[in-house]
């Protein structure tokens, strides 16, 4: 009843004991790391502490994956984009200076990854990506409201979807979203305005809005 | 559409959960990327970066200078004997009829006159080069030859000038090839071959 499980290392020789010491250290650090603030983890990741970076990864992976999905609207592509974002973050973490929050810094990297994805899409003449989006929309595997919103978002340009994702899903203000997307605040506001107008038109024809 | 309406509608978009395989793969690859960037302290890495960059630039500069020296107007000199041999062979086959021999990257084309009237006093070699493509024309002073350059046919008359120079004429334009002119995107060089034919 309520008995807590303990992690008990076992070893047969000196080499194993040394290895276990490392494992115990890592496990203890991991448990403490879970609650550590971003700045502390980033500082340690900058000093090549993979455990610290892994905690940051676990903390933000779902958020970046969701952002990627909201922009590209395809499961497999979202996974690839999220992975690429974290690879770039790992490579460039030494350049993080703390002028923006780590979360917003990650979003900025994700934004660049999305731009590269869009360029690749254009090069592939939209065939594969559009096909994936279309198939998902037609599959009807999800609830009808999901399909409607998915289909409506798929009609928008990717930079409008990105603006919507940052402002309405990630709850960032226009200034922060504009900074991440590397555009003027007015441009971001204009994208949001046009995206809203387009969504209203698209969804009203499909009966979502009365 | 109000803000609340929009939020309600957008909340209908369900985000698929990333597969564990994708997540683990991403975590592993990101961790590997972290290890790659942090193998040396920043300052030391910067020093190595600049050393390597300087080294690479020096190698590139040497390469470019060597390449330019190789492509100078007098560069085809080492092929002169081969050019003369080709022209001799063509003259043997078509006495006083050879107008020009055009070698376009190994594809050789021969231009001959219908009757044996063509003079062959001063042989000239003209090179047209662009992005690794080389067209080599063997002809004679006072002769005309035509080439497809950049999708258009260009016809030139070549004239031997003083001190081994060559003048290239096309309709109302003329180039002195000693200045390595650029025609239709091709850099052009030419020189007279020894009049030993």
In short:
Helices cover 75% and strands 0% of the residues of chain A. Chain A is an all-alpha fold and 210 residues long.
Mind explaining what this structure looks like?
The complex is a heterodimer of chains A (210) and B (197). Chain A has 210 residues and is mostly helical. Chain A has two domains: 19-120, RNA polymerase sigma factor, region 2, helix turn helix motif (Rna Polymerase Sigma Factor, Chain: A); 140-209, Winged helix-like DNA-binding domain superfamily/Winged helix DNA-binding domain (Arc Repressor Mutant, subunit A, Orthogonal Bundle), CATH 1.10.10.10. Chain A is built from ten helices and no strands. Chain A has helices at 14-33, 38-46, 50-72, 75-92, 102-123, 127-139, 144-154, 158-169, 174-181, 185-205. In chain A, helix 5 (102-123) crosses helix 9 (174-181), helix 7 packs across helix 10 and helix 8 crosses helix 9 (174-181). The longest helix of chain A is centred in the first third of the chain and has 23 residues, at 50-72. Chain A is elongated, with a radius of gyration of 21 Å. Residues 1-9 and 140-144 of chain A have low confidence and may be disordered. Chain B is α+β, with helices and mostly antiparallel strands. Chain B has two domains: 3-71, no CATH class; 80-192, no CATH class. Chain B contains four helices and ten strands. In chain B, strands 2-1-4-3-10-9 form a six-stranded antiparallel β-sheet, with helices on one face. Chain B has a four-stranded antiparallel β-sheet with strand order 5-6-7-8, with no helix packed on it. The longest helix of chain B is centred in the N-terminal third of the chain and has 29 residues, at 42-70. The radius of gyration of chain B is 31 Å and the shape is elongated. The relative contact order of chain B is 0.11. At the A-B interface, helix 3, helix 4, helix 7, helix 8 and helix 10 of A face helix 1 and helix 2 of B.
């Amino acid at each position: 009843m309520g008995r807590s499980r303990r992690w008990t290392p076992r070893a047969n020789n000196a080499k194993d004991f040394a290895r276990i010491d490392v494992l115990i250290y890592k496990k203890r650090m991991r448990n403490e790391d879970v609650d550590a603030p971003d700045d502390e983890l980033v500082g340690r990741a900058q000093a090549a502490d993979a455990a610290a970076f892994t905690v940051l990864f676990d903390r933000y992976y779902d958020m970046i994956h969701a952002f990627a999905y909201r922009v590209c609207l395809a499961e497999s592509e979202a996974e690839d984009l999220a992975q690429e974002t974290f690879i770039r973050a790992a490579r460039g973490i030494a350049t993080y200076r703390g002028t923006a929050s780590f979360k917003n810094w990650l979003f900025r990297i994700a934004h660049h990854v999305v731009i590269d994805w869009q360029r690749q899409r254009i090069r592939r003449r939209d065939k594969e990506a559009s096909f994936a989006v279309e198939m998902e929309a037609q599959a009807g595997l999800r609830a009808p409201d999901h399909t409607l919103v998915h289909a409506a978002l798929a009609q928008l340009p990717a930079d409008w979807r990105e603006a919507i994702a940052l402002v309405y899903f990630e709850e960032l203000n226009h200034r922060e979203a504009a900074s991440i997307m590397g555009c003027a605040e007015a441009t971001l506001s204009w994208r949001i305005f046009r995206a809203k107008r387009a969504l209203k038109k698209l969804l009203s024809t499909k009966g979502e809005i009365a | 559409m109000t803000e609340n309406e929009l939020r309600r509608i957008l909340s209908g978009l369900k985000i698929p959960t990333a597969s564990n395989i994708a997540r683990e793969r991403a975590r592993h690859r990101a961790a590997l990327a972290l290890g790659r960037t942090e193998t040396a302290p920043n300052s030391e890495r910067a020093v190595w970066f600049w050393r390597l960059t300087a080294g690479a630039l020096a190698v590139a500069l040497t390469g470019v200078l060597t390449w330019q020296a190789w492509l100078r107007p007098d560069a085809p000199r080492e092929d002169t004997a081969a050019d003369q041999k080709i022209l001799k062979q063509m003259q043997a086959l078509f006495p006083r009829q050879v107008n020009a021999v055009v070698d376009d990257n190994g594809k050789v084309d021969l231009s001959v006159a219908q009757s044996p009237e063509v003079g062959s006093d001063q042989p000239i070699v003209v090179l047209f080069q662009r992005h690794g493509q080389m067209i080599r024309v063997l002809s004679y002073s006072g002769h005309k030859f035509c080439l497809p350059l950049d999708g258009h046919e260009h016809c030139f008359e070549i004239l031997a000038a003083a001190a081994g120079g060559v003048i290239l004429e096309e309709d109302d334009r003329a180039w002195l090839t000693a200045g390595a002119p650029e025609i239709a995107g091709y850099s052009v060089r030419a020189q007279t071959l020894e009049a030993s034919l």
